[in-house]
Write a structure and sequence with these properties.
Elements: H1 44-47, E1 75-77, E2 89-90, E3 96-100, E4 108-116, E5 119-126, H2 139-142, E6 151-156, E7 160-168, E8 174-178, E9 181-189, E10 195-203, E11 208-213, E12 219-227, H3 234-237, E13 240-243, E14 246-251, E15 255-261, E16 266-272, E17 275-279, E18 286-291, E19 294-299
Antiparallel strand pairs: 1-12, 2-3, 3-6, 4-5, 6-11, 7-10, 7-12, 8-9, 8-11, 13-14, 14-17, 15-16, 15-18, 18-19
Amino acid sequence: VASITLPADESFNQVWYDLNGQLPEAAEGKDSVFVRWIADPTSARSALSSSDQSFEYAYISKVVVTAAEDMGGASWRVNPIAEYTSGQVITSVLGIRLTLGGGANVWSTADSVNTFGEATYLASINGTQNPVDAGGKKFSASGNPPTVGAFYKFEVDYDGTLDVAVIVNANKASYIVEDSTAFTDYNGFLVTTKTYTSYSIPVKAGSDYYFFSEGSKMGMMGFVYKTTSALKPTHEQCGIYSTNGSLFIRATKEEVISVYDLSGRRVANLKLQVGTNEISGLKKGLYLVRQSGKTTKVVL
């Protein structure tokens, strides 16, 4: 699936390396997959091992398998090996956009395996700056949702339900806000011990929702978004979609686009005509489409 070559000198003993690969098609739809690290027994590194077999696992820090639901399903989960930035906007779930608090806030991840309902989370994200508004005031003082610090903003396109898995610190006033009004049950609420839980709220199309704690940094593991009516098909919401084994790209002008697989290899380069353009002959999998300076993920 994937391989990596480590340097021959002994300096690599103090360095961790990321190894990324794509699982074969046969793994799709399986409840579980078996991932094994197989070292080259002739390499200099395995020669340092204390036995003939321990080198196969002694140097593994973490194995993480992510699925396509993270690229367009009804839920999003913190990826334990990803990096998140101040003000980052996450758009992988149709009909909802998550913005991570901005400003000087620095985001980091930590292992946090928890299950709420049917959703299991592997990691959490947390910030370094308490949330305040543009004037440096807390929500309880200004009535304005935060613009900087550790908070989570959700912009919703469809009515439905939003379940957000969070980590709330003890004895810190916490809030769930719709636009600029806190929910009655979540207006400065307190927990007596550090709490890992999921809060479920009704959401309305066109409204913004904020999750945060005052004088503290609320952590988050991910969310589940359920609409009360069926979402429009993908191709009605954006200009890039797949169906029946082909990739379709809708264009409003003539332009050249490129399509890449997960290894970074360009698999198609096409001059689009105004209207709907079809690319066929691609293998089943995840692709990145580069169009008008933007990159879009699409599953074929």
